[in-house]
C-alpha cells in the first residue's frame, strides 16, 4: 500500500497476478503480448474498510519482427523490362507465421505499384527503385520495412 495515499496496486495478466507488479504503473514485457492486462486498486485510507476495484482488461498487441526486404530481379540485374520481386528468403525471416504482406514500389520517390512485383519501364532508367513491405496480422502492431534503393539500368 502507498504510505501516503492508502492505495495499493496489483497488476494481472490473463487474470493471474504478475510477480512483483504492485506499483501505480506497470511497464509491459514480452510475456504480455496477446494477453489481457488489468489492475486492481485497493483503498484503505483513513481507517476505512479496504475497498477494491478492478479495471477492465486491455488486450496487449503482439510484435512482428522481420528483416529488411531484398529485391530480386529476373536474371539478377535491376533493369528496364525485368520483373522485380521481393526475395522470398527476406520475407521468410518475418514472424509470427500467418502474416499478410502489402507492397509499395517507388521509383524516384513516386509510387509505381502496390502489388508484389514491379517491372521497370524505359522512363525509370537511371532512377532509384525501392520497395516498402508492410506485414500485418490481427492483434499485432504492423511492421513496415523499406529495401535499400537500387538504380535501374537501361
Summarize this structure briefly.
The chain has 154 residues and is mostly beta strands. It has one helix at residues 88-92, and strands at residues 7-13, 16-17, 36-43, 51-54, 58-59, 62-63, 71-73, 84-86, 100-107, 110-113, 117-118, 128-136, 140-141, 143-146, 150-151.
Helices and strands, in order, run as EEEEEEEEHEEEEEEE
> Class by helix and strand content?
mainly beta
Which strand-content bin applies to the residues? 35-45%
Number of helices, where a helix is a run of at least 4 consecutive DSSP H or I residues = 1
| Bulk shape | rod-shaped
Radius of gyration: 25 Å
Distance between the termini: 72 Å
Q: Give the overall pLDDT as a whole number.
A: 91
Uncertain regions spanning at least 5 consecutive residues: none
Strands, total number: 15
| Count of separate structural domains | 2
How would you describe what is shown here?
- The protein has two domains: about 5-60, no CATH class; about 70-150.
- Helices cover about 5% and strands about 40% of the residues.
- It is built from one helix and 15 strands; from the N terminus they run E-E-E-E-E-E-E-E-H-E-E-E-E-E-E-E.
- It has one helix at about 90; strands at about 5-15, 15, 35-45, 50-55, 60, 60-65, 70-75, 85, 100-105, 110-115, 115-120, 130-135, 140, 145, 150.
- Strands 1, 2, 3, 4 and 5 form a five-stranded antiparallel sheet that branches.
- It is rod-shaped.
